[in-house]
Design brief:
Layout lengths: L3 E6 L6 E3 L6 E3 L5 H4 L9 E6 L11 H14 L5 E5 L5 H11 E2 L5 E4 L12 H13 L1 E2 L2 E2 L4 E5 L2 E4 L4 E2 L8 E2 L7 E3 L3 E3 L13 E2 L7 E5 L6 H8 L6 E6 L9 H12 L3 E6 L12 H9 L2 E2 L5 H12 L5 H8 L10
Parallel strand pairs: 1-4, 1-5, 5-7, 7-10, 17-18, 18-19, 19-20
Antiparallel strand pairs: 2-3, 6-16, 8-9, 10-11, 11-14, 12-13, 14-15
Helix pairs in contact: 2-3, 3-8, 5-6
């Protein structure tokens, strides 16, 4: 029986080709993907595709799109050996993070990829990314997928999806995983780092689509004032804040700042401390400037990315857990999103 892969095209640069009549870029028909990328014929896989209608620029992406992707995977889970999600690059890390939490007991690859140049242009990175993503989604040993998790394939590396950040808007190496090793490196051969890939799940696959978007980001910067902080912390209906702090989790020690954070926590707002640094971890108490945050109940994000922190909070808040339980899971790795 042929290995079967479902390609889900949400939108983005990768699916564009040049219109021969006017030279403009337009989406190509993914039903004819083998015509557009004839190299895929050499795999001998059974390839199917579903394209969103309308297609979505990743800048317009929202949790409803995550739910749609998760639902499509659930509907087709038993029919295919793996899934490739073609996605715009700007919010790919958010989507990969969200899907990692939403897909329960995932035992098949879900590989997100895209490109910096349209697939129909010269020098495009789209063809190689698509071909490699399909190969990884299909790779198995004794009938078991080699990468049974949500991941991002870009340029020549495979990353855990909820560990990625888009770090480059121009070059082909658009994504990086600063705090977790690559799942695979792609060269003449694909070299998997089996020691860091998630184990196979024994449970029944399901999806959880309950997400709560009543969250905000508070980015600390020199000169931030009380009006700005209070405006964010007093948003109506706010349930949680991702607070992007300096270095190892440091923030101003001004009395007004600490009091504002403490007052919000007292109202039940969860404050999740995430470092602004692309690499490294929050360690509240390492410096005096973070001791008070720990004392008033700010939750450490350890080495989680902002993208994963946003997705994790939306997921946990949607589960109708009490505040203490949510804080417990924020400190615990659920899907490999933090080293803790």
């Amino acid at each position: 029986m042929k290995t079967s892969i479902l390609i889900i095209y949400t939108g983005g640069t990768i699916g564009m080709v040049k219109d021969p009549d006017n030279g403009s870029l337009k989406p190509f028909d993914f039903d004819h993907i083998l015509k557009q990328v004839p190299e895929l014929n050499d795999f001998g896989f059974e390839l199917s595709s579903i394209a969103f209608d309308p297609l979505i620029d990743s800048s317009n992406l929202n949790p409803e799109v995550w739910i749609k992707i998760a639902s499509l995977i659930k509907e087709n889970y038993e029919k295919y050996d793996g899934f490739v999600v073609l996605h715009g690059t700007d919010t790919m890390s958010y989507s990969a993070s969200a899907l990692s939490f939403m897909l329960e007991n995932l035992d098949k690859p879900v590989v997100l990829t895209g490109s910096q140049l349209p697939i129909g242009m010269l020098r495009t990175d789209g063809k190689e990314n698509l071909i490699t993503a399909i190969e990884i989604a299909a790779d198995n040993k004794n009938g078991k997928a080699l990468v049974p998790e949500v991941c991002v394939l870009f340029e020549n590396k495979l990353f855990r999806g909820n560990r990625t950040t888009k770090h480059n808007a121009e070059y082909f190496n658009a994504f990086y995983s600063y705090n977790y090793p690559d799942l695979a490196k792609v060269g003449i051969n694909i070299h998997y780092n089996h020691a860091v890939i998630r184990n196979h799940s024994e449970g029944m696959f399901s999806i959880n689509t309950n997400l709560d978007t009543n969250i905000a980001i508070l980015k600390i910067f020199p000169g931030i004032n009380k009006q700005t902080v209070d405006a964010i912390l007093n948003i109506e209906g706010l349930r949680a804040v991702v607070m992007e702090t300096y270095g190892a989790g440091n923030a101003p020690t001004d009395a007004w700042f600490v009091d504002s954070i403490k007052e919000a926590i007292g109202r039940g707002v969860i404050v999740y401390n995430v470092t602004q640094c692309p690499s490294g971890s929050v360690d509240m108490g390492l410096y005096e400037t973070s001791v008070e945050l720990r004392n008033i109940g700010v939750v450490s994000g350890h080495d989680i990315t902002t993208e994963a922190a946003i997705a994790k909070l939306m997921f946990l808040l949607g589960q109708e857990l009490d505040s203490d339980k949510i804080k417990f899971f924020l400190n615990k790795s659920i899907k490999g999103e933090l080293c803790q």
